[in-house]
Amino acid sequence: MASMRRFNTAGPCDPEMHYMLPPEPRLPEARGLVAQNGYFVVHAPRQTGKTTTLRALARTLTAEGTYAALHFSCEAGEPARDDYLGAQRAVLGDIRASAALMLPPELRPPDPWPAADPEQLLTAALGAWAVACPRPVVLFFDEIDALRGESLRSVLRQLRAGFTRRPAAFPASVALCGLRDVRDYKAASGGDPSRLGTSSPFNIKIKSLRIGDFNEGDVRALYGQHTTETGQAFSEEALVRAFELTGGQPWLVNALVREAIEEMRVPPADTITAEHLEEAKERLVLARQTHLDSLVARLHEPRVRRIIEPLLAGSVVLGDAYDDDFQFVRDLGLVAPGAPARVANPIYREVIVRALATGIEHQVTVEPRRFVLPDGRLDLRLLLQEFAAFWVEHGEVLESGIGYHEVAPQLVLMAFLQRVVNGGGYVDREYGVGRGRIDLCVRWPFRDATGVRTWQREAIELKVWAPKKPDPVERGLVQLDEYLEGLGLDRGTLVIFDRRPDAGEIAERTRFEEARSPKGRAVTVLRA
After folding, report:
1. What average pLDDT does the segment 413-437 reach?
2. Angle at 33 between CA 29 and CA 36, to 5 degrees
3. How far apart are alpha carbons 233 and 429 in whole angstroms?
4. What is the pLDDT of residue 198?
5. Span 391-407, mean pLDDT?
6. Judging by beta carbons within 10 Å of its beta carbon (0-12, 13-18, 19+), is residue 313 exposed, middle or buried?
7. From CA 310, how far away is CA 329, in angstroms rounded?
8. pLDDT in tens, 448-493
9. pLDDT one-digit tens code per residue, 61-96
10. Looking at the 3D structure of the chain, how many domains does it have?
C-alpha cells in the first residue's frame, strides 16, 4: 500500500500526514523552563518548525495531566497595529478557539471573559483563567511579532504586570515565539522604526531559545522515513548533497526531495540520486516559491543590504550597526551562525544572486548553444569573449541600475553565465569573506569518448580593483591557486573589475591576458 505521508512545505507538520522528526528534541530546554514556571522566548527563522514543536509540546504537557498547556497564534492581531484593544480581543479570540479544539472542557478559559478596562483586558482574562483552572496554565504565544506598535507594547506590559501573580492567579509559564528575540523587536511609530521604549521589553524572561536547523543525521532520518514506507532509496551521494545544498534548513530539506518525488515524478522504483536533487534545486530556485520569495523581498531593506552586499563582495562586514543588523539577517535565516559570516546555504546563495540579477539576465540575448563545442564541452574562452563584448556595450548602464553597487559588476557576469548555462549546467558560488573575492565553479555535463556522462568544471575567480588599492592580480593568482587546488583543476580564469575613477573607459581597459599562478597553473586574466 502506498504511503499517504508526504514531505511538508506548507504549515505545521502532522505526523499522520507528513514525514517529520520528533519535535520535542528540537527544543530540549523548554520542558525544564516550564517546570520552573519560567517565562521564555523561542525564536527561529520562518519555516523551521517552531509551530510544529510548540504545538506538540503543548499537547504532551496537557496529556501528562500536570498542566493546561495551549499553543495559539497572535497573527489575527496584526491588522490592529496601534489599536491595542482590538489586538487584545483578537488574541483572546484565538485563545478561546484553540482551547475549544485542544483542551477538555474543564481546562478551558471562562466564557465570557471578565469585563476589564481596555488597558488590562489581557491581564484580567488570563488571571481569571488561571484562578478557575484546576491545573497551572501554560501558554505559547506563537507569531508574537505579528503584533506592532502599541499592541505589542500592551501585551508585553500586561504579561509583566501579571508575572508576580503566577501560578495561582496568572499563567504559570509563558513562551513568546517569533522570528526574533523579543529584545530586538522594533515597533513602527510614525513610520520610524524604534525600540519598544525599554532595552528589555520582556525582562521577566529566563532565557531565549533558538530552534536550529537539521544536522546531517536529521536529514538522513527524515529521508529514511520515506524509504521505509515506500521502498524508494536515496544514494549516498544524494544524502550528502541534500545536506550540502540546504545546510539543514528544514523547509529546503523537505522542498528539495518533494520537488523530485512529486513534481519531477522520479519513479518509486528508482533510487533518488544527487543529480535528481541538483535538478530539483534548480527548479526550486526558478520557481521562487513563497518561502524563498519572502526572503528575496527583504534584500533591499537597508539593514539586510548592509550585511548581504559585503558578503557577496567578499568584503569584511563593518559598521556600528553590525551586531544588530547581523542578528536581524541571521534571524531571517539568510546567514549561518558562527564565523566567518556566510550566506546560510548554497540554495540561498543562488536565490539571492539570481534575484538581484534577474533584470540583467533578461538583457542577455546570446544563444547558449553557440558555446557548446562539437564534443559537447562548453567553450569557456568564447563565453568570456562574448561577455567582454557585452560588458563593453552595456556594462555602465547595467551597473548604474543595480542597487547592490559594491557587487554590481560581479552580478552582471554571474547573470551572463547563468543565461548561458541555464537548462544544462550549473554555477556554484562561494564568497571569500574578508578576502575580497567571489569564486565560481561552472559545471557543464557532456559525454566523454566512451559515451559516459561526466562533468566539465571551470573555475572563475572575481575580484575588484578598488580606488586607492594596488592591482589585485598577484593576490588573485594566489587565491585562485588555492581554489583550483581544492577543485583538482590545472587552469582557471581570473576576472578583475576595475572600479577606480581614473581607470578609463570600459572599452579601453577591457582586455585578456595570460598568466601563471605561483604554483604554475595556467590562468586567463580578464580585465574589465
Report:
1. 84
2. 145
3. 29
4. 44
5. 88
6. buried
7. 13
8. 889 899 999 999 999 999 999 999 999 999 999 999 999 999 999 9
9. 999 999 999 999 999 999 998 999 999 999 999 999
10. 3
Per-residue pLDDT tens digits for 125-162: 999 999 999 999 999 999 998 998 899 999 999 999 99
Give dist(CA 423, CA 360) in Å, integer. 18
Amino acid making up residue 59: R
What percent of the chain is helix, strand and coil (3-state, nearest 5)? Answer: 45, 20, 35
Pairing relation of β-strands 426-432 and 437-447?
antiparallel
pLDDT over 70 percentage in the chain: 93
Specify whether 188 is located in the same domain as 247.
Answer: no
- Give the angle subtended at the CA of 172 by the CAs of 169 and 174, to the nearest 5°: 120
Cell of 253: 530539506
The owner of cell 573607459 is: 505
Q: End-to-end alpha-carbon separation of the chain, Å?
A: 61
Q: How far is CA 479 from CA 79, 443, 486, 497, in A?
A: 52, 20, 11, 16
Q: Is residue 409 assigned to a domain?
A: yes
Give residue 193's pLDDT band: very low, low, confident or very high (50, 70, 90). Answer: very low
- Main-chain dihedrals φ then ψ at residue 436, nearest 5 degrees: 60, 45
Is residue 341 domain-shared with residue 252, that is, in the same domain?
Answer: no
DSSP-assigned states of every residue in 290-324: HHHHHHHTTTTSHHHHHHHHHHHHTPPP-STTHHH
Q: Write the CA distances from 302 to 104, 299, 307, 350, 424, integer angstroms.
A: 48, 8, 9, 20, 35
233 occurs within a structural domain: yes
**Domain hosting residue 121, numbered range:** 24-210
* Predicted local confidence at residue 317, as pLDDT: 60
Q: Which cell goes with 100?
A: 475549544
Predicted confidence band of residue 186 (pLDDT cuts 50, 70, 90) = very low
Set of cell numbers at residue 178: 517569533
The amino acid at residue 220 is: R
* Distance (Å, whole) CA 99 – CA 139: 11
